[in-house]
Design brief:
- The structure holds 2 protein chains of 2 kinds.
- Chain A is an alpha+beta fold.
- Chain A contains 9 helices and 11 strands.
- The longest helix of chain A is centred in the middle third of the chain and has 21 residues.
- In chain A, 39% of the residues lie in helices and 18% in strands.
- In chain A, the strands form 3 sheets. Chain A has a 7-stranded antiparallel β-sheet with strand order 3-4-5-11-6-7-10, with helices on both faces.
- In chain B, helix 3 links the parallel strand 5 and strand 6.
- Classes of the chains: A alpha+beta, B alpha/beta.
- The interface between A and B is medium-sized, with 25 and 25 residues.
């Protein structure tokens, strides 16, 4: 659910940025959803101009209870104007805390750190996001899975790549969105040439070791990648097109921790 | 060859985690200064003591780019890379840049990044085993291997960054190259 929450957070802030009037109506003040959103810091990052009904929470339970529950990790802000050097430490610290009993905890933490590092670095380097991005993670103890999510409100991964494909990677210019996305994570593609583009590929390699699914939401498209013997491949991917517009790139790896 | 110099990465970093291309480029500048201030040194032994993690982008912009820049002239190797997760990231960066990087553990070497191709792998093993190798020595050890062929293989290993070489006087009076591992 955390990945959906940060996507919605991005969407609501985008609409507000475009001067749309946004109203979130929870119908009752003590709804469980409202309480959970407050706990993960949703309202701390939601634009103040967005109306919340029946009322925005009086206080932030995320700030009040931060770090006290291993199963709950608050949404982290990616300040587009200033890189927070401690952000990765906070995110992976939460995983260390939640997964400390696992024998593969160091590998898991290392993989999550690399994924967050590369995805968040991309927000600064490529996204051209006009508003903040968000990072989130959730450990589902009963479901034995870990979700690692990063959202930005920029141009979108493929939109930043496609303009340069004709010159840098002409063979890839004809690929569909789904096929191109698979190549991004399978072989690595960069608008800066063939010597770059290893960040997302490397992230995918880390995730595949834990049989992680990858959910990618782009402005009008959503692609779900499932790891197979050869990693992520087009023939095992699902693609949804003509979706409602949401700016940016919204990625979520779901690690299977069995 | 001149004595190797220890190059500690952590003091050149602003934190114990190497994150992102921009910070990698800043460290790269410091690395180049370090290397250029030691013009006679051919091998730099990189220590990662104190470095907790690096991502692939940071790895690409720092030691990998440094090795690529000085390929053929200077060599860089790791001496204390014991974290498998971090090694994966260095290896991924090296692979992308097509720049091999040596890492030594307990006297044994591993090549991170692109591996020597089939045609030159045996020559590479020969040089690594002997500690230094001449084309004539290798040719003598392999059936029906000409010195010219052996020389071509070693030259490829040098050009692709797997070995360094130094010039010596051949017995015939010409120039002969001695190929050495980066250690």
């Amino acid at each position: 659910m955390t990945d959906a929450i940060v996507r919605l957070l991005s969407l609501f802030n985008q609409l507000d940025y475009c001067t749309r009037r946004v109203i979130l109506d929870f119908e009752c003040e003590d709804s469980d959803l409202l309480g959970y959103l407050n706990r993960v810091g949703f309202f701390d990052h939601l634009s103040r101009r967005v109306e919340v009904l029946p009322a925005r929470p009086d206080f932030s339970s995320a700030i009040l209870h931060r770090g006290k529950n291993k199963g709950v990790v608050e949404i982290a802000r990616i300040d587009k104007d200033a890189r927070d050097g401690k952000l990765l430490e906070r995110l992976t610290g939460a995983i260390e805390s939640a997964c400390s009993n696992r024998s593969d905890a160091p590998a898991l933490v290392g993989a999550a750190w690399t994924i967050f590092a590369e995805l968040i670095d991309n927000v600064f380097s490529h996204s051209q996001t006009p508003i903040d991005g968000y990072a989130a993670l959730q450990v589902y103890k009963k479901g034995n899975c870990l979700k690692v999510a990063v959202s930005d409100s920029g141009l979108g991964l493929l939109e930043t790549l496609r303009p340069t494909l004709r010159t840098e990677h002409p063979k890839l210019a004809q690929l569909s969105d789904m096929e191109l996305l698979v190549e991004v994570f399978r072989v690595g593609i960069s608008r800066h040439g063939t010597s770059r583009g290893c960040g997302l590929k490397g992230s995918a390699a880390k995730a595949i070791k834990f049989h992680a699914d990858l959910d990618v939401r782009l402005p009008l498209v959503r692609v779900l990648l499932v790891p197979g013997k050869q990693g992520y491949a087009a023939n095992t991917a699902l693609c949804y097109r003509n979706l409602p517009l949401i700016w940016g790139t919204h990625l979520c790896f779901t690690f299977q921790l069995d | 060859m001149n004595e190797p110099v220890d190059l500690r990465l952590r003091p050149l970093m602003s934190a114990n985690e190497g994150w992102g291309r921009d910070s990698g480029r800043e460290v790269h500048r410091a690395l180049v200064e370090f290397v250029e201030s030691r013009p006679g040194t051919l091998v730099f032994r990189v220590s990662l003591n104190g470095v907790k993690r690096v991502d692939i982008s940071f790895a690409s912009e720092t030691i990998v780019e440094l090795a690529r820049r000085y390929r053929g002239k200077k060599g860089f190797c790791f001496t204390d890379l014991n974290d498998p997760d971090m090694e994966e990231n260095w290896a991924a960066a090296a692979e992308r840049a097509k720049q091999p990087l040596m890492t030594w553990t307990g006297g044994k070497a591993r090549v991170m990044g692109p591996q020597p191709s089939q045609g030159i792998a045996d020559a590479f093993r020969f040089a690594m085993t002997k500690g230094e190798a001449r084309a004539s020595d290798y040719a003598a050890s392999v059936k029906e291997m000409s010195i010219t062929n052996a020389s071509t293989k070693f030259k490829q290993l040098w050009e692709n960054g797997y070995l360094l070489r130094r010039e010596t006087a051949a017995e015939s009076g010409g120039v002969e190259f001695v190929y050495v591992p980066i250690r």
